[in-house]
Structure formats: structure tokens, C-alpha cells
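Sat 14:20. Reprocessing the chain from the morning session after the first attempt stalled halfway. Input below, unchanged.
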Amino acid sequence: MPEVAWRTPIPELLIAMDAKIEWSLAFHPFGGGKKKEPERQTPQEMRKALRAK
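Finished this time. C-alpha cells:
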């Protein structure tokens, strides 16, 4: 099986890994469920935060 992994394109590996993580979160025996995504900052908010540092 190692030869299959070596021939698999990186994007396919990343998609498979993301799917495995999503599946394990959805079907976790202790309820994990979907995590709330953090709110995204606007470009203006990011600039202000960078200038403040």
C-alpha cells in the first residue's frame, strides 16, 4: 500500500484528511458535533489590528 500513498496527489490526501476529521467530529461518541467557526475580520479590521501592534 505505500506505493498508493506515494502516487496520490497532495490535494487528494488533504481532502481525505479533512473528511476524516469532519466525520470523527460528527460521530464522536461524546457529542463533539460541529464547532462554531470564528467570526472573520474585515480587511479594515485586520489593518487596524496590525497598526496597533
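The chain is about 60% helix and 0% strand.
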